[in-house]
Amino acid sequence: MGRTLLRHWPLLFLAFAAVVPTVALSNYQLFQLTMVAVYAVAILGLNIVTGFNGQISLGHGAFYAVGAYVTAIMMDKWGVPYWATLPVSALICACTGFLVGLPALRLGGLYLALTTFALAVATPQLLKYKLFEGWTGGVQGIVIDKPDPPFGLPINADQWLYLFSLAVAAVMFLLAANLVRGRIGRAMMAVRDQPTAAEAMGIDLAMFKTRTFAVSAMLTGIAGSLGAIAIQFVAPDSFAVFLSITLFVGLVVGGVASIGGTIFGAFFIEFVPNLAEQVSKAAPGAVYGIILIAFLFLMPGGLAGALRKLLRLA
Amino acid sequence: MDGLLHQVFSGLATGGIYASVALALVMIYQATHHVNFAQGEMAMFSTYIALTLIQAGVPYWWAFAITLVVSFAIGAVIQRVLMTPMANAPVLASVGIFIGLLLMFNSCAGWFFGYTLKPFPSPFGEGKPMLAGYLSRHELGSTAVTLAVLLSVWAFFRFTRLGLAMRAAAYNPASSRLVGVNVDRMLALGWGLAAAIGAIAGMMVAHVVFLEPNMMSGVLLYAFAGALLGGITSPMGAVIGGFVVGVLENLGGAYVVGAELKLSLALVIIVAVLVIKPSGLFGRTIVSRV
Amino acid sequence: MLLEAVGLRAAYGQSKVLHGIDFTVRKGGVTALLGANGAGKTTTLRAICGMVRTEGELRFEGQRIDGRPTEAIVASGIAHVPDGRGTFMELSVEENMRLGAYTRRDRGVAADFDRMFTMFPKLRQRYRQQAGTLSGGEQQMLAIARALLLRPRLLLLDEPSFGLAPLIVQEIFEIMRRINEADGVSILVVEQNASMALAVADHAYLLETGRIVLSGPAADIRRDESVRRAYLGY
Ligand SMILES: Nc1ncnc2c1ncn2[C@@H]1O[C@H](COP(=O)(O)OP(=O)(O)OP(=O)(O)O)[C@@H](O)[C@H]1O
Ligand SMILES: [Mg+2]
Fold first, then answer.
1. Which residues span the domain enclosing C42?
2. Which among A50, B2, C33, C129 counts the fewest CB atoms within 10 Å?
3. How distant, in Å, are the alpha carbons of A53, A209, C44 from that of A201?
4. Are B180 and C71 in contact (CB < 8 Å)?
5. Residue of B130 and C155 predicted with greater confidence
6. Ligand 1 pocket residues where CB is under 6 Å
């Protein structure tokens, strides 16, 4: 009995996460948890490529931005229902990821980190660009409506948004976990740890890494879409390089190459900056910087790694 | 035509700044195979130190010199404290540390000095434009300073015993130890030197763009573009690349994409180099490490 | 004794390579260290220079050197021509030689450069050339010159004849003898080419999987047919 329970802990966790907060928390707290689900998916995307495939991206905020804008534009301009924007956003982000990854991943090494960093820095400018203004709303951005609960469910819009995001996140985690545990996941890690051997086994390194990068961009893009729906607003300056760095920090703090750790990372980047901001406007950055370095030195496995160690000791 | 020449000249002036930062990046890359993502923020922080000194009444060139010494020390200490223990860690760890440093310098600058734009003095005075009106006094002066810096760095590496030892340590640490070179010390020196070069670039550019915590993010991007264009394995290439990118930026900004897309131009240059000639104009083909 | 090792152990990470060996290098002598591939010869030289983690005692001119950093050991008078020659490929021949004299501040450096040119005329011809473009033999000469420019009292040579044509091998051994006799530099040489090594050496050690299995005057080992058959394969 105990064993079966343990084996199904993700399901239990999900059921708990769906019911308890929805009834117990205020709307604002629910919104925060919604953002945790959003960030968890975003970091999950980054973890696929950086954690499991070993290719460092410092620009996943850009894919988050693309996802957010695709959803916002479709809802605002064409009146597409919010849920229907997700598949489109996924597709567009995967393609963007493929195109960005291709030149850099052909070369390996630090080229991806460099290119994606440049992309992250340039993203707000691109979003503000005059030619796209008709769609993107320029500096002003786009305001979208909060979706109503469907089927006349007896819950409010925030509660629905939370449940919806949680459901999408759960599906993404399930897909990612299966991907990572399967043949493709083993290939990813082989490419990360033993590139020469992987190549000898017939894996086309550049193409494989680029595809992985596309999948990873897709996940983070979906997170961007969810984030846009939750915040009901997109504007260029919310997608500055700091967002990409935040996701990177979440990845390291949660645990590189740990699916479960992603969730810790998401909690961290949702709540810690808010706390730090009460000290000073500059504090979140400083806290991130210190924590990032501290984790790399003291807990390179992140919170997930530390937890695993604790459990093994216990 | 006149307008074009003007753009080329002032492009060369900013190019000098990019060239300096690109050189700093390549120096560290050659010695450690790391790309210092915090190079720009370190330079920005140094510039705040200089401004603080100047505001306290220290004469410009004294403040300049003190800033170089302090920046050098900061660079060397970072190498000793953070990078040495991470020498054999995975790439992700070193990139993470650079990002952590970037965050810390950026937010400490914001914390200590605020986020408002601050004017930064020029030692060359305002005055009227020089060289038949193509360059402002500051542009001319800062170009002279960057050229002087680049030349002295070149001479240092080319002609001095220490410069030779630093190059040797970067190329072949094991053999360097066997001739008695203290490789760790050379790395710390290299970091210090890179930080000082960055500080000069920061002090020169701050007069043009005004000082604020994010002042260097664009410069860093262009320095990346310059380093890649010239070849990340070639210091001379990186310097030339920096100048070329400065001119391209100015021409592109004036005639092609407009000022609001200038950063994206750097991205375009980076991607173009990776697609067309990954080794850059003067670099060796790189054996990838990951 | 110039160099003395007692119970010297060395390991790369978890894998132990030297299991406590004792040996000495006599002042003014040439000592040969022989053994099959993977016996631990290179590791022994690396251990002397502090390039691997070691346990046990190492004394050079009576001073403990174990645990000291490589550059300090080198500066105290031990030059090492490493496995693979350690050429600074990107630098010129001149710069390689200048690096050899890196630790020195005395006025004799210029004269020593001239001595190297007499000993290795090729290096004068190639003085401004990039060292990576030298032939294997020339690189070996450069490596020896680099080591000698340090003015060492002990020279460690790791397979100086490796990959070279017989004529050049002859030349290298001739030079070794000269360095030892004329300049009074003591030598510890690792060689695959046992017969050559035993011809110049006065003392030899035979290493087998991290242990010394035989030692004695070089001449005795050369004469002992059973040893030659069993260990040296000629
Ligand atoms: N850097 C290293 N890391 C791990 N193991 C090593 C390393 N270098 C050598 N070894 C191992 O140590 C043992 C001894 O190697 P060493 O190079 O000292 O042998 P050797 O006697 O010089 O052989 P050869 O004649 O082939 O040069 C070998 O088993 C080798 O695999
Ligand atoms: Mg060997």
1. 3-87+154-232
2. B2
3. 16, 15, 37
4. yes
5. C155
6. C 12, 15, 17, 35, 37-43
